[in-house]
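Hello K.,

You asked for the raw outputs rather than the summary table, so here they are, unedited. I folded two proteins back to back in the same session to keep the settings identical. This is the first:
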Amino acid sequence: MTTDISFAELADRYVAAWNETDAAARRAAIARLWVPEGEHYVRTLQVKGYEALEQRVTGSHEKNVRDGGFRFVAAGDAQFLHGAVMFHWHMVPAAGGPIAALGLEFLLLAEDGRIAVDYQFILPTPTA
């Protein structure tokens, strides 16, 4: 992963995992994105490893996508710096409409380009 395009693609694959409706496909996406002992931090929540990552992503999916009618999209601003990738994402109504939530991902990558540590920051939601 040495080009801006690959980091944009990583951001797109990342948000796609949170939107994925099929549990087996979501599990496979997690394995492609994170190393086996990958870590994810958001607010006071900390998870480590595929099982915990799957529970985290599935819980968010059920709350926000399945039940909430939203979808996650990468903002198109992925940047790479010395083994880390940063990008913003938006949670938007699937049927269209204003941004309902905004976040920033800061990912530390392993040697193979998968996520070793994922810091998720929930940012203030823009007002209309």
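The second followed immediately with the same parameters:
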Amino acid sequence: MTQFYEKRSIENIEKIPVVSDLSDYQTVHLVGLSFTKAWCMKGIAKSLPDNHPLKKQFQKTANIFLNNGLPLLFQGNYGGDHWLASFAVYALEE
């Protein structure tokens, strides 16, 4: 199973999206990307055996993505506010 996790690929996946303008309806999608990445990384970590060397790294990365996105919720911008909460809920699921 480890052959699917190349260092270069993991480094690319772990890049935090930079949201430069929450009022831009396209840029605000990067907040959703943080939540989606958190959700996916949690799912990957959960499916790995407890002794897998990347399990803790994926859990940590999921939390970083969550912490990046949560402060950006409900900023008074309809472009993001009307849908970002649903992605946050998925990312917060255990």
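Helices lie at 7-13, 29-47, 55-69, 78-92.

Happy to rerun anything if the numbers look odd on your end.

Regards,
P.
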